[in-house]
Protein 1
Amino acid sequence: MNIHTYEKLWLIAAMVLIVGFIATITYGSVGLGITMVGDQQDTVEPTELDDERFSDPRVAQVGENEYEAYVTAQMFSFQPDPIEVPEDSEVTFYVTSRDVIHSFSLVGTNVNTMVIPGEVAEMTVEFDEPQDYGVVCNEYCGPNHHNMEGMVHVVPEDEFDLTELDAEAPDEVETGDDIDVTATVENRLLDPIETTVTLEIGNETVSEDVTIDGGETDETTFTVDSAQLGEGDHEWTVTVDEHTDSWTVTVVDELEDGDADDDADDESNENTDAGDDTDGGENGTEDETDTDETESDASGGDDE
Ligand code: CUA
């Protein structure tokens, strides 16, 4: 059979194109490591993210320069916001949605993933220099889609810490009752940290030095005598490094809706409290006697 030369050339050109197309598609799907969200991770329940990775979205250290960031996207924000990581680090982001489809895209980079409810998107990113990146959502997710944004701060090593502070105290106490202010400090680094927890209330300042192991949480309770503060509103502030938490406690003559029953309960509580005090008594007394020294230490530290 005789095939015309031009027809032969066209047949060869068509073959080359077909092989070329197949090659580019194969390279795009295998060579570049682009995968579908949900290929790598188990599914989660989006409406109640009780999965411990996402119930408290956060950054945690997992290796010398390696970090994991657990991020949730919801109408119309990202959590945590801002996300803070150190320079020269490798960060693996795990991102999921609490409601509808969003996306997690670092502006000006090729870091970009769809965020699908029920699925966990995973991306590993290397950060070099300190820089701020905007995070945007580029999947239409509702009326405020255009306002859905966040930040990733890549900060210098010496400005980076992974300490979380959460302090709690009662809103209202009766004169004469103790006020317990509890500071919960979490260290999300791998190495232990040494720091000072300081409570300011009224004219009083009390401090306690703590050492917290990597990945651990420390609870420090300061007990303040409400009678010394007097009736009224008293603002308190707990400080750990650059982190602060503050609120107001009101000392009242007598708590409202105090039935006879309640009073009886209160009394029994007081008894148990007294028992607790004896247990933790050693620490408590030491704290109070140490106060002045620690204070001057702390102010000395500030001067540096
Ligand atoms: Cu979230 Cu658009």
Note: The chain has five helices and 18 strands.
Protein 2
Amino acid sequence: KVFTSTLCTTLHTPQYEFLSGAQTHYYESPERLEAILQYLTSNPDSFEIMEHVEDFGYEPIKRVHKQDFLEYLKTAYEEWIKEGGHPNGVLPATIPHFKLARLGKLRPSNILAKSGEFCFDLSAVITKDTFKAAWNAAQVTLTATKDLVRISDEFEKSVAAGTVSRENPPGLYALVRPPGHHAQSDVCGGYCFMNNVAIATQWLIDQPDLKGKDGGPKKIAILDIDFHHGNGTQEIFYTVSNPLYTSLHSNEDYPYFSGSDLEKGEGEGLGFNINIPLPHTTTDDDYVETLEKLIKDHVIPYQADYIIVSLGVDTFKDDPIAGFLVTSEGYPRIGNAIRKIGLPTLFVQEGGYCIEKLGINVGGILKGYLG
Ligand code: Q9C
Ligand code: ZN
């Protein structure tokens, strides 16, 4: 089952961004979603598309993101225009670099200052309806998450009754944009504003009636297979032991300052953050082998109740802003490796920018998962 909303393709359309100092078109575009949707619609035997979106309100978003940051996202564009900002959208020109912040104690309310305080790069352009778009992506993801609980209960019953084998776990997909895994509790960046996967994860942990095997909250293992490190998801859950955050990503690319295998979590969270940085030479075989090892060494022993996948296909060999060698034949193998975990899984769309192959690549992962 695929959860999406037409708002994912109509809202949040910045005209340009800056890459290597040059103005380019905005890579995180509605066409990305249209391409994926078109592929899934033309495979009706495998995919059922749901346009139903429930409203979970502000509460689940506030559990992950700070109030002042959310207020900023909501009001930034209007203030920006009022102060003479360019209509393409809010982009910082001054970001509080940590070497300055050692001395600086100021937190000015000026929009030019706030645009830097709440953003870490030049790719998260805030337009008139960015807040609404990010809100919508979070609500679609939550809608899918609620259904994950339902289908997972059904799955457990069927397994107990012996009508379904554990080898065929159910799966859902939230087809959303803007993506989320670079958004931290109080900073946007990397095309991300609200962290959809983190919001969904925290919501599952917070449900009072959802009990895990030990009587505590359900346990979630996050598998981040986007090409880029999910600095946002890592930051949000760095000091807790639920969820387990695991990521395969490039060892030499954006976001540059996080993603090392030495980042293992802190306090109660120590040992529950697993980063596996990989080189640009990474092929289908390398990727699948590393993923299978990650699953065997870390995901299976964690004994989660649910898997949430940050699904990026910017690992593709022809992705215009990334650099691995994964081919369209590799994606079904990746999906199959995830299926072999044997747990109900929610896939949430993150990156992937090769429009021509987005459908077949995302579809390949999902089909590989379905087996
Ligand atoms: N030379 C996601 O995939 N610009 N975000 C990087 C690369 C930002 C990627 C520049 C890339 C953000 C969700
Ligand atoms: Zn990415």
Note: Residues 19, 123, 179, 182, 190-192, 226, 228, 254, 312, 314, 321, 350-351 surround Q9C (ligand 1) (CB under 6 Å).
